[in-house]
Amino acid sequence: MPLSASVLIDGPSELVFDYAVPDHLQVRAGCRVRVPLRNRPATGTVLRLQNSQPEGFNLRFLTDLLDPEPLVTPPLLKLAEWITSYYGTPLEQVIRSIVPAAIRGENTSAKTRRAAVLKQLPDDESLAALAKRAKRQHRILTVLQVAQKPIPIAELGGPAATASLKALAEKGLVEIIDLEVRRDPDASETFIPTQPLTLNDEQQACLDTIKSSLSQASDLKSENSNLSPILLHGITGSGKTEVYLQATRAALSLGRSVIVLVPEISLAPQTVQRFKARFHDLAGEIAVLHSNLSQGERFDEWHRIRDGKARIVIGARSAIFAPVRKPGLIIVDEEHEPAYKQENPPKYHARDLAVVRGHLEKCTILLGSATPSLESYRNTQLGKYALIKLTERADGASLPLTRVVDMRIEARKQKGRDAIISDVLRTSIDKRLEDGEQVIVFLNRRGFARSLQCPPCGHVIECKHCAIPLTYHRAEERLVCHICGYQAIVPRLCPNCNDPAIRFQGYGTEKAEGILRKVFPSAKVARLDTDTTRRKNALRDTLREFRAKKINILLGTQMIAKGLDFPNVTLVGVLNADLSLYAPDFRAGERTFQLLTQVAGRAGRGQMAGEVIIQTSTPHSPSIQFARHHDFDGFVAQELDVREQFGYPPFTHLALLLARSSHERRAEFTLQTLHRRLAEKLPGEIILGDPSPSPLTKSHSQFRFQLLLRGPNARVLSHHLNRVLKATPTPEDVIVTADLDAYDLG
Ligand code: ADP
Ligand code: ZN
Known about the structure:
Layout: E1 3-9, E2 16-20, E3 32-37, E4 40-51, E5 64-65, H1 74-87, H2 91-98, H3 101-104, E6 111-118, H4 124-133, H5 135-147, E7 151-152, H6 162-170, E8 174-181, H7 201-218, E9 230-234, H8 240-253, E10 257-261, H9 269-278, E11 286-289, H10 295-306, E12 312-315, E13 327-333, H11 350-361, E14 364-369, H12 374-381, E15 386-390, E16 401-406, H13 407-413, H14 423-434, E17 438-442, E18 471-473, E19 478-480, E20 487-489, H15 509-519, E21 525-528, H16 538-547, E22 553-556, E23 569-574, H17 578-581, H18 588-600, E24 611-616, H19 622-628, H20 632-646, E25 653-661, H21 664-681, E26 687-688, E27 692-699, E28 702-711, H22 714-727, E29 735-740
Parallel strand pairs: 9-14, 9-15, 10-12, 10-13, 11-12, 13-14, 16-24, 17-22, 17-23, 21-22, 23-24
Antiparallel strand pairs: 1-2, 1-4, 3-4, 3-5, 6-7, 6-8, 18-19, 19-20, 25-28, 25-29, 26-28, 27-28
Helix pairs in contact: 1-2, 1-11, 4-5, 7-8, 18-19, 19-20, 21-22
The structure holds adenosine-5'-diphosphate and zinc ion.
The site of zinc ion has 7 residues, from loops.
């Protein structure tokens, strides 16, 4: 039976058409082809092949195969199909995010330079003659003979050499060719090579576990064997990166490739440096994928990876799609980071995709973190993942001493003003500055304060059904629960202490910066947040100045919480821990514990002892107390209890359904319609919340409404949700999106 191919046409319109495949073309899924589209030729990617139906004889033939190798390798195509069925995103959209536009389009291609290569040397007599009469020709021949490889014409004298080269070519001694050159984004960098460190016992045990998984993966005979992902729980500074480096070497020596995922490449310059320095011998084999690559650079890096020339790939979440050959090890550093979740469709989670890809390609998955996500940790309890641990700092430093300051007392002391810097923190910063040490001040401003908290007593108003803070909607003067939809009126007095001071409050980094400058007039203060880092290289430059000790106090958002290693920082202050703790999200406690632990990891990385000061109005909250005592196990035990009791992940999967429109009523009405349909169709195991305005009520002049679904099985949830979505028509000016395993709850 004749074959037909479904082809995703290049271009923004996402068209997919079927074409008959001519017998003489070896077309496979994932290949690029040329096809007729109306009256003009077009290009596209083959999504799948099928046997044509009888009426398929009317199909037009595709005309050409552009690339003998499939652009999307078979395992990546399988991964794409998995994403489609799990997240409900159309395959063509998934393929487009797997293969960058720079690769799919025809506008970018390999960069070439004209070069000369030696074909044959003349006999001694003619050579001697050349040396006398045509010195330039003689010199070119000598250079090419010594080089034993093509030399760009520019390096042989450029235009001045043209006549000589032409003469040599006519004599058949030299050939002029097009030489492919790599656009190397890091060509100007240099690295000082490093040698592997002698591992301590814990690190050695971890490496042994990883190595045995690597060799198991290498000689798997059966198709369906199960290789468990490995979770490396290592406290900050315990030497996880050293383990990654040596595990990478081990995978390479088995002839396999390695992908290293980091939450955000611009925040991981030190990780990239350490890989480049360690694999100095393989300098050309490291590809770093980041969003600042030019189209040409991206084209080259992608092809270097696919052709097996780059065997180590470092990148942010989309690097999980790197077309490496024979991946043996995929490392997901800081696996708990929400940055691994893609915000636009397909809304995949790169850590979860790593696990799926590891299964498809039989490779070892290593997830690392000082504060593993509850999802991954739970999987170790269930025996799905293996757990390995590093419990001590590798450089012999001790964990910083952590103090908690009760801001309720401070609010009473600094009556009438916003208490931003406590006396304890002020005295401590003064002392550090005097000693020439550096300070990091941290303020989580993500989403600013949306919950009501009473300053005198610290009380927070929560939903009685869901154990999360209610969100204050100022316009409607209402409190709303974004899990179940419960609504309440705003109290005039605090229900706990009857004080009228309960109100919408909070301050951002900008205000904090002003106050720091005022309180510490002789100190140099710098601020890092999304506003100050818009300029290209602003982040890098500020961090460089901080490292050079030109900045005394670095103030920042979660941007500065992770990964950075500054030996001279001895004090970290957290201005308002409650901001993240009382975000209207069931993960708020987990996020706060993670942030405090990561931030504390920035203090005392060098020889000097570190100190952390946490300011809060709820000093006894478990997340703060467990973080203070560096007690991950204690935190996890109590948090898992709460999650189980209220039916939150990791005990359920969750989907967020969002309707947005510039037309408020229509957005709300659409969501109500969907809610009704879902209520009719959903099996009983799925918990359906009520529609409510999103915590972010309006954004980009669109009104937002949302509802949450929870169920024990992700596929069942996704299946039913997508069926209802497909079957329910929505008004043109309302956009409905579904987010499975959502992290950002609006
Ligand atoms: P993590 O990635 O867990 O935060 P790092 O790998 O950055 O930890 O290690 C912290 C510090 O300890 C680094 O300065 C590193 O060079 C050092 N270190 C790591 N392993 C060893 C070791 N086996 N011996 C000596 N120093 C080590
Ligand atoms: Zn509720």
